[in-house]
Amino acid sequence: MNTSVSIIGAGRLATHLAAALAGKGIIIPQIFSRQLSKAAILAQKVNAEAINDLKAVNDKSDFYIIAVSDDAIYEVAHQLQHVISSDKLVVHTSGAAPSTLLVPFFRNYGVFYPLQSFSLDKAVDFRHVPIGVYSPISQNEKLLFSLGSLISQQVQCIDDHQRAELHLAAVFVNNFTNYLFHIGHDITNKANLPFSLLMPLIQQTVEKIKLSPPVDMQTGPARRGDHSTIQRHLSQLEVEDYKSLYELITKQILQLYHKK
Amino acid sequence: MNTSVSIIGAGRLATHLAAALAGKGIIIPQIFSRQLSKAAILAQKVNAEAINDLKAVNDKSDFYIIAVSDDAIYEVAHQLQHVISSDKLVVHTSGAAPSTLLVPFFRNYGVFYPLQSFSLDKAVDFRHVPIGVYSPISQNEKLLFSLGSLISQQVQCIDDHQRAELHLAAVFVNNFTNYLFHIGHDITNKANLPFSLLMPLIQQTVEKIKLSPPVDMQTGPARRGDHSTIQRHLSQLEVEDYKSLYELITKQILQLYHKK
Lengths: 260, 260
Known about the structure:
- Two copies of one chain form a homodimer.
- With 260 residues, chain A is an alpha/beta fold.
- The first copy, chain A, has two domains: 5-158, 3-Layer(aba) Sandwich (Rossmann fold), CATH 3.40.50.720; 163-258, ProC-like, C-terminal domain (N-(1-d-carboxylethyl)-l-norvaline Dehydrogenase, domain 2, Orthogonal Bundle), CATH 1.10.1040.
- Helix content of chain A is 50%, strand content 12%.
- Chain A has ten helices and eight strands.
- In chain A, strand 2 (30-32), helix 2 and strand 3 (49-51) form a beta-alpha-beta unit.
- Chain A is elongated, with a radius of gyration of 23 Å.
- The N and C termini of chain A lie far apart (60 Å).
- The mean pLDDT of chain A is 95.
């Protein structure tokens, strides 16, 4: 496969994605970043040309992947249309932005969305990063699917509506979960206990939902309808925010399992 | 070590605990359960006598571990006092019940609290189950610590207040987290997407908090103060419960990171 993919962006996602693609023999002609030094660091790793001017993007790649922040996608696409032809396959990598952001500029547009957050300093095994691909043109979607399958074991066609829902679900299971971990950390810390005491329990909760739907795995006082423990917990809670959150989630779990 | 531990209870915790102790050469003279058949199944595994009458508990064990539901601890201890002497070391295994529940009956009381939830059909590696031990008498606490250290790599002295806080923290990081997973499952399910797409992200969130406090690992629209994404998510949410929970957690994260 003699495919070539130019990458617009040199941030965390662009860096890991370029490395994964290059590792599978994909040619990366160009890496763009507004900061030439950033482009250069990544370009060196994947044997690409570093550029910091969108006018210097050449027209010869098979794919163009726009891996920039959501706010910048439209402006980048707007500028790209002046240097590459409108029938090139151009995709963005955002979970939140609709694919239609690219409609004014390119006939062959789409999305190539790796569902993971990346840190620059930590290696990523892309095989285990799910990738959602989308294009309204089935032939393009097949091409994106093939490209994704080169680097990931879990590629799925996901339209704009589905992607928006997936992004929303990720906020609950990732961002909001981390906030609950923060509360647990704060409570143990104030009681002079190491948070690490809770790690096996957290790990176990995650292992369980790999086997069964979370709704079948729910435990705890609200699940049991154990009102005396709930009352004791509420009386223990001194931070108002934690208390209101405890009350709301408990109310919802009680309704889910104990409604008449 | 020729220690002997009789176990009152034959449920999930009792079963895994008895097996772990027996595996380390601890003698288990007796297993009690109200249902003789349950006691017998466990007793056979650990070479113990099965009994279903607390009057048949003999006085010769070094430790007595009451591993029954919270509601039953007091009544069991009340009955036990008639058959074993008040200077025996008797502990319960509850995260929620105070140790003082045992005060009316035994001079040498305490707690032996494995911080994990167990299923009957799944093997448990007790080495990675944290155990909180407590006795107001330091010599007893040392004995409990030694017993715990036989089977677990993470034994910690935890007083009643700390244990109550730990139990509360566990509700946040375990029970409430599972509820968020349920919401993520429901949202993906309704969008015809497999929940498994979210598993790598969930796993990553857990890996990150092993390295840094969750407060430093927070990501997402609320962390960024990205109000346009928050508004879009709220307009996507059709289930009233999910919407009110999204609003509350978002408000709390915004306050935590963006307060003036």
